[in-house]
Structure formats: C-alpha cells, structure tokens
Amino acid sequence: IEHRTAGRPFAIHHTDVSANSSSALYIHCHSELEFFYLSDGELYFYIEDNACHMHAGDVVMIPGGLIHYATRVKNDGRNCSYDAVVFSSKMLVDTLPSYCEHYFNSSICNSIAGIIHLTPDTEWQKNVIDYVTGIFDFISADARKCELIIRGRLLSAWQLLYNNVYSDLISGQHERPTYPLLNKCIEIINTNYMYDFSLNELASAAGLSEGHFCRVFKDITGFTPFNYINRVRITKACGMLTCTDKKIADISAGCGFNNISYFNRTFKQIMKESPSVYRKNF
After folding, report:
1. Rounded Cα–Cα distance for residues 42 and 56 (Å)
2. Which position has the higher pLDDT, 105 or 15?
C-alpha cells in the first residue's frame, strides 16, 4: 500500500491505543521506510524476528518491506500512544544529485541490517529523535506548506544515521567485489518477484557459486534467497488483498505461487494469519 499525502509520497499518523487492548499495532508491511515514535507507554515492537523493548521517547527506524507489529508490555490501563511517518526513499533521493544515491542503498533501505532502535540516552540518537518528532507538528498541515520542512528533517535524521551506523555498514559491503552484482540481483527479484527463479539462475546473475551466493545473500539481507523472494511475494499479496477484490487463488498465482496451499501456508507463517482473515481484519 502506498502512503501518500496530497500526492506526496509520505504520510503521518498518530494513534492512541485503547486502554483495554493488548495489541498496539496490527501486523503489516509496506515498501516504504518508517520512523515510529512512542510518545507514551511501553511496547514490544517486532520487526520480522527482531524485538525492540520500547519506552516513551524511543524511535525505531523500519526499512521497507519488513513485517512489523507491536504489543503492549502491560495491559494495565495506562495510556499508550505513538506517531509514525511513512515515506518513500525516492522522496529524498529525488531531491539529491546522483552522487548521493549511496546514502539510500537498497541493502539498508530494504534489509534487516537497516533496523535501528534509537533512545534519547545518546546525544546523536537524541538529535535524530528531535528531527523526527518535529515532523509530527505538521500532521494536520497542508502538504504544500510543509513538505520541504519534512524532507529537510528526514534528510537531517538520515545524515546522522548514516554518519553513525550506515556508513560503516555500506562501506563494508561495497568493499566486497561481489556486492554490485548481488545488489543488482536483489533489484531483479524485487521487480520480477512473480518469476519462478532457480538458485542457479540467481547465483549466476551474481557471478557466484550457489553456496557462496546463499551465504553472502543472507549476510547482507538477513534472509535466504528463497525466504527473501517469499517475503517480497507476500508483501505484494497483502497489497492485492487490501486494495483489490481479486480472488485469493488469482492473487496467489499473480504473485508467483503455483500452489495455493503453499501460498496459504507461507502467508500464515509470515503474516500470522490466513489471507482471508488478513483481508477481513484489514
């Protein structure tokens, strides 16, 4: 699902969690990046297999395409609320010259490696949080009167993330001679997710043996090649389930699953509920 405000590729949300609800954020995924700010309360925030114990004042950076949800630590009737800004990396990349594209590398923007839990206890992290929370002042504003400020704050926050975390990670990956081909392979999967790739085809595209390809791929993305493909396909299926009235069997086939039973099992494994229940709950 694309998040947009007045045609711009971002959206800002505020949520007050019901006092009697143990769930704070339903399980979902989207292709955009997200800064999630817990303004009040205490949460367990889950991103794929990673769990963050969040306290009021914390921010989590969520890369695109990763499944995430949150539960309250205690269902004790205390207040719990949060804000989020969801945005496309293209929104920022398009404002920059081409030589700055490496700041938004796909191995960060669409990978478990890009997850960062920020707390106000460290100065640079507090500065990131200040940039992010300043965006929420414009939740009700006309996009035409604040979009440059929002872009500026996102770029400022990203610069600090890059300086303190992402630069070392990206440079370490770029030093590998296999990196450019592997990154291209990831882009091929994202674009042609419905195609029935073989391991040999993927490894050949990256110029690696199958075993070496699998090791390097998981090291960079956090997933095995076929787990990554399945997650991309399920992400696309979620969008079709919520934005179209297509039959589940047609969605399964359109996302590259030849067997609807396997699609249902994979969907439930990743999204914690069946496709029909997901469509109904959403």
Report:
1. 6
2. 15
